[in-house]
What does this fold into?
Amino acid sequence: MKRFVIIAAAAAALAATTAQAQPRAVPDYGAFAPVPEGKDRPVPARDYKVIFEVSDAGHDAARPLEGLQRVARMVNLLAANGVAADHRRIIAIVDGPATEAILTDKAFGARHPGATNPNVRLIDELMAAGVSVRVCGQAMAGHKITPPEVIPGVEVDLSALTTLANSQLDGYALIEE
It folds into this structure.
């Protein structure tokens, strides 16, 4: 019995170390701590349909939004625990005060002289990992943002309200800030 416990503990530690040591799906963001004893782990065979509403602009304009970093953490947790990219359907809808996060560096710099958008690289990495990054068209209008000012690849939706409603009606789980 003692031998079984030692083997089981070693296997759990190896699995946790291997999960964290694998290349992350979103390489530069979304770090997480291994929790070998953690329960309610991702199920590799499950289709994860998750939508994140990212609306908080945060307190530090020089750092990527925490809401977008949470999306990266979710992608990395799923990937590290064996959930393949074709089982991860993740949407990030950006709206409200967070809307400027989707501006290109040029457009961001025009609004904030001398600054670059700290979210561009994170958004690019999220999209490369298969995340659908979207922005609320109503929030864009409110912030006077035009489509050419949006990071290439970010989709402009009619509104976050319709995106959130439609996604939930299609079976997506909502994670709010």
Q: What stands out?
A: Residues 2-175 form a domain with the Hypothetical Protein Ychn; Chain: A, fold (CATH 3.40.1260.10). The chain has six helices and five strands.
